[in-house]
Design goal:
The protein has 448 residues and is α/β, with parallel strands linked by helices. The chain is built from twelve helices and 20 strands.
Amino acid sequence: MSRRAKISPAFEPFLAESGPRDKREAIVVYDPQVPALPPLKGRLRTLKQRLDAIKERAQAHESTILGAYQEQGSRQAKDWLDVQPVGEGTLPVATVEVTRATLQILAAQPGVRAIMPNQQIHLVRPREVEFARLTRQERQQGCTWGLEQLGVPDLWPTTQGEDINVAVLDTGVHGDHPSLAGRVKQFVVVDPLGRRITTDQSFDAGRHGTHVCGTIAGGTTSDGVAIGVAPKANLLVAGVLIGDSTLQTLMEGLSWAIEQGADIVSMSLGFRYYEPLFAQIFDMLIAQYGILPVVAIGNENHGNTSSPGNAYSAFSVGAIEKMPRGSQVDVAFFSSGASLVFPGQEPNALVNKPDLVAPGAQIYSCIPPTKTPSGIYEYTYMNGTSMATPHVAGVAALLMAARPEASVQTIIEVLRATAVHPRGDTRRPDNRWGYGLIQPAAALAALG
């Protein structure tokens, strides 16, 4: 790979106002040089042994690559350049200081795969719906319209996501919510400097993370309405969207999730710039760790997409809504989607995003207790692709629990293959529906 291909195009604006020796923080992804390992297969994987092998090899290789860069770069910059590993060496990623000149020196190091600026990340912010009581239909059917639309309750006699760990990288979670009782197994806060902060009491810096967790694994409301797709899945929650979060914050959260044994990672977040090199991280999560990353595509309307959901290897999700009349659904007006070409990447061809769509408008789920003039609310409706994303994460948990021998790549392929596009298979995938609306029962049947 050429030096140019390793350096994110986002560096051009990132370094635009910096002098030749001004230092900026970057994230470097390197090849851990781990020997070929057998494909990971769902819950049957020996993740602990694999992590130990990756960490041992990665730390040794990291020392060689970053040590050489630090020595050469510091001479060029005429100042010491700081290098800090991310996490416990689980992900082959580090935070480094670069200048205009030393960026090229870093890219020249053997084993470096990608260099990205450590810029801010943000929540894929939902469009909130006014507080309202449950609709009569949801009360009657005993679940949210999203669960009903996907036929999720029909799968519960077979699978409810037992023993599957879903990591949620978001604003945190109000783990004491009655609909999440016993479901939040691990909680950590990652501050803007990338430091992990543990606390006995989980909390939500907003309301978004709690809402997402409820859709993935929430229980039943006091009105008897089920809100969670996989009510017996475990939630591992990292508050990475607290304060001025950066790419380093996200990498630390991902590393933590891997160490906790995550099977799925749900991310409803984005960058304020286009970042094609994040595809390297998705490739690692799937191939090396057997983890399925599910990412919101964004709420910027059709013709736009949000990184990292628009990386070619991302498993990205758009949103559908119920139409005002009848039982039909359509892609929500706010749901992003576009056709992209990734020069120099494999495959070097047209890529359509999102991959799938799922219910994402007027989604009812739990929130931290919120006081309003009309009372205290613990549930609300929200709109957004960040409401569709947890539906897909929850469905993946159902499939993994039912078919633990299936690899992550197999689950991805089955979810795409069984999705339904309203205009038939010849239109799949496009940049509105992707492969289509997710079909949990058909996907489970296709897994055998």
